[in-house]
Design a protein that fits this description.
54% helix; four-stranded antiparallel sheet; single chain; 5 helices; alpha+beta
């Protein structure tokens, strides 16, 4: 079975060419949070807008950060970035381990919420494509 982070990469790749990506894998659920980073080969403003709109409209347990950092797009729990900054932790991987150790229920909620978010994105992408949305 494909995990939610990998499903998101596959979904993105169906609608635009990806130049590069990385993601956290669900087999490490105990001490890691969902985090997906990708870069399109060519700018995909319509797709980027659709993703951003869907995330902003998503009513969720977890607040999600979706932003462009340098050349890459990042999707992760907003709390992770705030936690990393507030604790001056050098890497996001280290921040994930500390945060999940201190608040394991948040990490479980984040994975559950992320899976629902990916499902929502899949539905939105399919709907837009079925109605001939030029953004896809």
């Amino acid at each position: 079975m494909t995990g939610a982070t990998e499903r998101l990469i596959v979904l993105l790749g169906r609608h635009a060419d990806l130049e590069w990506f990385k993601y956290t894998a669900e087999d490490q659920l105990a001490d890691i949070l969902p985090r997906v980073v990708w870069r399109f080969k060519l700018p995909a403003p319509g797709l980027e807008e659709l993703i951003g709109d869907a995330i902003r409209d998503y009513v969720s347990q977890v607040q999600w950060l979706h932003e462009k950092q340098g050349r890459n797009w990042v999707l992760m729990p907003a709390r992770l970035q705030a936690f990393q900054t507030s604790r001056s932790i050098a890497t996001d991987a280290a921040a994930m381990r500390v945060l999940c150790n201190e608040d394991p229920s948040f990490c479980r909620e984040a994975w559950e919420d992320f899976a629902r978010l990916v499902n929502l994105l899949a539905v939105k992408f399919e709907h837009r494509r079925s109605v001939g949305d030029e953004r896809l």
